[in-house]
Amino acid sequence: TMSISLNGFAEESITLKMAGTAAKGTPVSISASLTAAPSQADGVFAGLLTASPKGGYAGVQVKGFVKTPYSGTAPALGYTALAADGNGGVKAASSGPLRLVLELDTTKKTVGFCL
Questions:
Q1: What is the pLDDT of residue 4?
Q2: Pairing of strands 57-63, 110-114
């Protein structure tokens, strides 16, 4: 039988210098030339960390499907604006880049979307 799987869909990751530290899956923003930093609350994020930073560098997933915690009001399905929540997850935003939200779990408070 068929099942739905988005794991690995169009994934693209890059390696950048890392200002600060954060856990895998944390949204990061571009803080300087070729440098990522954990996104501040309400910040536009470039991608999510693929692992905890090591040696001042980090892998950042910039395309493809991701799943991460959300806070606040559940994001809408379909194309919707998301921002970093400042606590390692995302939240619905009134403006900013639109992300394709495909999955929402209001019990676990997770959202799956394409970067």
A1: 86
A2: unpaired
